[in-house]
Queue: 4 jobs
Job 1
Amino acid sequence: MNLNTWWNKFSLLVFPFLVLVSSVLLVSDNRQVFQDQEAVMYAYVDSAAQGKFGYGFNVQYYNDISFAGLEVGDIVLGGYPDCAYGRFSHVGIYNGNGQVIEAFVDYGVHLRSIDHFRDYTEVCLLRVEADPEVKKKAAEYAAEFQGKMFYPLAFKPGDRIWNCSKVIWKAYVEQGIELDEHRDLWISPDAFYYSHYVSIIREKGN
């Protein structure tokens, strides 16, 4: 048996075993999350059963929501119909001067004009009930992640991969504010909407 054949057979046995062990450890270490029926993973499962996958259906749309009065550190949510993980599929943190820090698969974490949130059928502006200086520090912290890699299902632990929700959650956790009520393995944009730390400034959609 040559080395390549041996390695191929070894890989077929070992890699599935490692995946199994990793899965068992993940469930064991996060048992309370898996027992929480409000956890994001169950939203994914329910959505998949209804044929909803990914960010939802991107339709040609324009909403006329006003961004007037936004403060640095405010949170902006956007969503399309049939999103797999709730009403909202995207989130950014307001950085002032008409710009938000956000994360997309195409660009990673980056700074972008807030105006593109007018393209969503669902949009909501949230104010974190905290001292303005705390919110400013959260926005500054999020801005430090510019250029980081994007990954849709980025777990909270780790600093290598990020998605739009994780960046904002981490920015506020560093300021002592936990915006995830369920302390899930990952955080969806909807979690910010339901956090008791925020109030709704204005919203459009359902």
Job 2
Amino acid sequence: MGDKLPITAVIISRNEESGIRATLERLRDFDQVIVVDSRSTDRTVEIAQECGATVVPFDWDGRYPKKKQWGMTHAGARHDWILLLDADELVTPELAQEIRARLPELARREYGAYDIRLRYKFAGRFLDHGHTVVKRSLVDRRVTRFVELEELGWDYEVEGHVQPQSDLPIGRMAARIEHDDRDPVESWFTRHNKYSGWEARLMADRELFREVAHRRTSQGRVWAKVPFKPLVFFLYSYVARAGFLDGRAGFDYAVALSMYYWQIGVKARENVRLAHKEAVSA
């Protein structure tokens, strides 16, 4: 193993030829790299193999486990600590150094998982201010797992906006992961249109909504309770967190996420209206 980090990096992919090489090249310090691939039809698999990664095909059967959990438990990881990455997420040198420095802490199992902030790219520019997305990306698979999302109405092969849960406390890394999204902005809106529909359906079931909120990061749990989310979020991201320092991209990102929360509210109210109409006509 030499001086390699005793961690298995698991990357989920599907037709990611444009960016997966950059992701894999940042993982040379990791002892094992696995790409869990959903039958890509481009050069994703070829590129991953050229970079020395093990490629494991994934076919979702519509049941638990979904893709990330399956990668943790069934893709052949030889280490208990797993770094979960999307194919457009890059480990920064600072994060690799921090993980190395914390190896004794990982060995002591003081925490069951670590939250890591993303340095997010939106509209072609990395954002250094404003709202920061946090993901629970470094996990000990012995004590950390994703919830069975079929019960939560998310009918897609990859886990959605729900974080894995751990039997041990959750730590936090200071360094970041770079989210180098190369897709057009239109794809961001397409994804979040789907996410907002799911969030709106959750709001119709208070018990289920609380269950999902419990499985988010602490930041996500706070936002679940905030009233007037579109306005509050814009002021928080663009003003309080100095998103204006990122120029037009910072403004556009703050507006886009504010509108995402607005979408959730509109769809949730419509769901209530339609349910009431159906109950009256029944």
Job 3
Amino acid sequence: MCPPNPTVDAKKPDPTRIPHRIETQRLVLRCYEPTDAETVRVVCAANREHLVEFMPWARADPQTLDEKLELVLGFRSQYDAGKNHIMGIFDGATGALVGGTGLHPGAARFGFEIGYWIIAEREGQGLVSEAVRALSLVALRLGHGMVTVRMAPENTRSEAVVERLGFRREGLVRNSFLFGDDPPRDTVQFTLLPAELEASDWVAATEASVRGFDALGRPVDLSRGAEQASSADSSP
């Protein structure tokens, strides 16, 4: 058996790294595993018509198991590298896949953009709001400067989610969404800053119910002041 490497063993995990698993009152938000590929295949195919209006990637469905496996492996690779954090939304009680979300690189390379979708039968139950609250708390408490949500101007249901949470409407951003060979589309952009998170009427309840865990299952500090601790830990 090889002796432990004291240099590696003593190194602290990056305090700004997005957790691999986030638990909320009703949900588990986590990076996909290869074993999720069949579930992703079935759920996306069943919800294609529900999703395709605002999620152009849904046009590719139905896909084969191997196609979904390659997709999931790519998601996981980017997550582990800290480049893009694509997550499934799973029911905390049953483990069923009920949607997708993530913290994606911001267009201005500052902060993260939150994306989300939910299956048809779970729409209107507040699950998207619960996921967005949790991801906003995680990103901003870990020291990232902004969270952004963008949607098509016609997607009033999505817009209502972030308005209820106190995101600020920045306005219409023309030709700001690109997908494949489609013509560019306009989006409406909303943002939330750290001070706005802390002033929100939902932050205390969210902090009390949300837990984050790194890739080794270790708890991640999401308390207020975690940002300052992260900065101190990373100082030379």
Job 4
Amino acid sequence: MTPEVASFSGQWSDASPYVTPDGSKLFFASNRPVDGSKTERDDGDLWYVERTASGAWGEPKHISGPVNSEGDENYPSVTKDGTLYFASTRATEHFSAGQPHIYRSRLVNGEYSAPELMPWTSDADDHMPTVAFDDSFMIFFSGGRGGLGGGDLFVSFHRADGTWSNPKNLGSPINSGDYEMAPRLSPDNHTLYFASNRIDGPSTRTRRVNYHELEQELHAIQNGLNNIYEVDITDLRVLDDGK
């Protein structure tokens, strides 16, 4: 099938699409103007489109209320009760503008409430959240919590008492010495999809290569550019150590 630009896209910088498991809504980030002008925004806001009776997508709707800010909002993920999780670079009482953190906004009577920082928020750059549709766990990218590479994937479990577990590194072989990012979940929460720029083989050569060998490396699949991976995470709960 030949890819097509979505009916609501093609003019502005639209990114981070998230389709709800029931296929009824698509959330995304965009720099498109809110005021009907032709001037793009300096920051990205969160928008959504709804599936119409004909199966097409409706007109984009800007998420009103306190969700969007003067910072960048992106990477939305939504649970079955409508709770919206996303990353934002907004300034807060404790953090300066420009540093990404993960927020939650509950849907109350059809309106999104004031965003709440995740309880384990720290000085780390936490970004790209993806949440199980039943709100049972979140997987996200972090570049400042330590780990195996420059950026790793972490998981936090949402427990029955409403608390969240301390983020835990997903470890090898999901994480590597390079960057793992952009996580997304299958509708049944059993498969994790993510991007990685991992390299097949040692990062430092043990001998000099010739031009033909170098060309083969550059055209190989794991050549330092991002690829998309999938992994079965049915047994993810074994990482919940009760902390």
